[in-house]
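Hi all, long-time lurker, first post. I run a small reading group and we've been trying to get comfortable going from sequence to structure in the token notation. Rather than ask abstract questions, I figured I'd post a concrete chain and ask someone more experienced to write out its structure so we can walk through it together at our next meeting. Sequence below, copied exactly:
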Amino acid sequence: MTSTSAESTASAESPTRSRTRRAILTAAATVLARNRSATLAEIAEAAAVGRTTVHRYFADRDELIKATVADSITAIGDSILDARLEEGPAREAMHRLITAMVDTYEHMMFLWGEPAMLELIDPADNPDIADRSVRELIARGQAEGVFDPDVSVDWIQQTLWALTYTGGEAGAKGELPRHGVAATVIRTFERGLYRGN
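-- Answer (accepted) --
Happy to help. Here is the structure in token form:
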């Protein structure tokens, strides 16, 4: 095979490899969020690939977990940025944020459900742009008179994460319908931290 042919083949395979890697990482976050001792075979089954395929992408379980940590941080950050928190009234932006966070629940549960996962976070993979945008939204909401100004931005942010995590967990357990999790979190958040009626 000529080098041009090899390059063409590699380029043609790239989207497939990317999709396969994405399927494995998504399956890893979902499976490990529910069962920390899940095997590579169980993750492979959830990704609809063979175990040997998982090994072609990740040498061992530790490498897969580290990659899943980095991928989860990226997924959560991207979902927050996609919610366009700087646009529109703070209340509407908060609704978009909560919906986005609920949609990445498996990644949140994987990262925050086990303290050891947080120790694997590489600062280079953890840009603060998304976190800063959330904090700016909360501060803007307080200035607009929407969120309680008598508690700190940190308090509101931590309460938001806790509610979102709890809502996602309830959805995963079947205690709430998955399509109703965001609405429940929004309603609970509003009744506890919004000002006025």
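A couple of things your group might point at:
Confidence is low (pLDDT under 50) at residues 1-12.
The domain at 1-58 is CATH 1.10.10 (Arc Repressor Mutant, subunit A).
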